[in-house]
Amino acid sequence: SSNNDGICNNPRPVSPSKLQRKYNAATLTNVTGDDLAREVRQILVGQRHAAVKATQAATEGNMMTTILEPPIEEYTDSYGASSNGSDVAKIKEQKIDKVASHPSAAPKLPAKLTEGGSYFCGIEDAAKASRQRELRMVRLSQLENETDTDEALQNNADANEPPQIRKKLRWHALVDSGMGRLGFKTEMDEQFGNLKQDPQRADLADGLSDGSISSGPSDQSGIRDTVAIIKELYDAEVHEGAPIEFYGMCTHMAEANSTSTYTNDQMERFRSLLHRVRSAGIAVPSISTDNSAALLTQSLTHFDPNAILAHDTRGYVRCGGAIYGQRPAFPQLRAVSTLSATVKHVAIIKKGESVGYDRAYVAPLDVRIATLTVGFADGYPRELGNGVGKVSIRGNTFPVAGNVCMDMLMVDLGWADDTVGVGSGVAVGDNAVLWGPEDTNVEECGDGLVPLAELAAWLKTTQSALTCGLDKLRVQRQLVVDFSEVMCAYPSFMKFELRI
Fold first, then answer.
1. Angle, to 10 degrees, between the axis of helix 33-68 and the axis of helix 85-100?
2. Which end of the chain, N or C, is less packed with Cβ atoms under 10 Å?
3. 172 burial level (CB within 10 Å; 0-12, 13-18, 19+)
4. Contact (CB, 8 A) for 325 and 297
5. Are 211 and 136 in contact (CB under 8 A)?
6. Nearest to 339 by CA among 171, 456, 490
7. Residue 206 near residue 218, CB atoms below 8 Å
8. Do 402 and 408 meet the contact criterion of CB atoms below 8 Å apart?
9. C-alpha–C-alpha distance, residues 360 and 175, integer Å
């Protein structure tokens, strides 16, 4: 269930204008207002000329029909209705006019423009309209010279459809430089190294040469060199017009930390393959090698832009968990994800009464119990039940009472007779934070009263494993950005709130 509670005790409202910013799809900085006005006038004048042309074409078509078609006293159409000869000319005229006024033959203009007002849709729309007008005039010209029967007119109407634009599939060459998960091999001998370890195919591996692999698929093994595969796809795009687009090469670091030298080994393999790819005449538009750990580990010197980037290559990094502050090895990061739920029910449990499945919690005295709208079906770990996990309500933490249920969990608010403690004031509808910061001001709030890093450490897992385990349908995702207070100190600060 969802709620409209804030994410902290004193939530700061964020105006929609701060959350939703609109940008123009495309602009031209060298175009003045006079140029745009002139273009609009040309569109209007062109439309007027096109309308005159369409009228002339319809009139001439009517005349040609009257001359070429023999007089017909009466005919019966496919529906059994009768008509005289004069109606035939009208039908011809209507068909010609239908082709001339086909929706795809003329640009679709906004209502304001058709009513006489001034309305400009942008340079891109103007270019499309100009191209459509050009095609329309060509087809009208062809129609004027057409003297065939109804079938010819119908063919012209079908031909008036705009051409289909082919979409291209952008692809990257993922390189397995040492992750052992997915990707192209970096060296040719790696691609058939397993053959040498197989006694039944060892003789086949010994017979393979570098030339047989790099030139194409082997007749015996079917193994091909990485460069040969990329080259084939690249040539299909550049020379054969295949609807694909080679966008670059990437790899993934397996052990990017300050004490390991494995990252340097991976980068050396990647650079070797990159050199062979470029030597084959393949332009590499972009390269991506670093994940969050490789980017933030300052002692690593694996990325040499002079050796990797060229005049035709752009480099970028792929930040994953670091965006959400989920890398405890880097203290400069701040947690930005908060999981919260709502207090659904508050009740007094007498001494000796139990709470939850298996009666795992038995009240040692009269206590106040709050029930929250979150359970292990939402992704909250069941291992955090029975006092292991804690929940923050009204600025204080309370232990989880009993086992975590599928859709709910219970929290021990303290002694029932307590009238001054924070637990005594907890009421239905209160916001409960299960982990993460409770305010966008990270200087005051830090990682929150229930840090996600501590829960992950106790469960012997990662923070990403906990956040990725949250159900996508049951748990509502909400992005909260407060530019007014954090933009100066944290230019890229965002809070990704997970609410139930």
1. 160
2. N
3. middle
4. no
5. no
6. 456
7. no
8. no
9. 51
